Amino acid sequence: MAEVMGLRWCLKWIKVLNMQDIVVEMDSELVVKCVRGTVSQIEIDVIVADCVSLLSSLCNINVVVVRISKNRVAHGLVGMARNVRTNLLWGNVPEAVASISCNDFNSMKE
Asked: What is the pTM of this model?
C-alpha cells in the first residue's frame, strides 16, 4: 500500500511542478504491473486508478521497476526520512544521497 501511495504522491508532485520526460523508478514490481494494467490487486485498485489518471495527464512520464539492490538512493532517503519524521521537501540533496547518486551514475557510464 505504501508503494502505490508513494507513486501517487510523486505523480502529483510532478504535475504541480509541470515536469515532463521523467522516469519514476520503483522496486515494487506489483505496483508497476498494476499501473500498466497487467495485474490487478483489489486492495490498491482505487489508488492505482488515480495513478493511471495522473499519468494520462502528464507528458512522457514512465514508471519502471528497478531491483532493490540498484535502488540505494531510495533506501538512503527512507533512512533519512525516518530520522526527520516530518513532511519535508529538501531544496538541496543531502550529501549522503548525492554521493550514492553520483556513484550510481558513474557506474552506469562504465
From this structure: 0.65
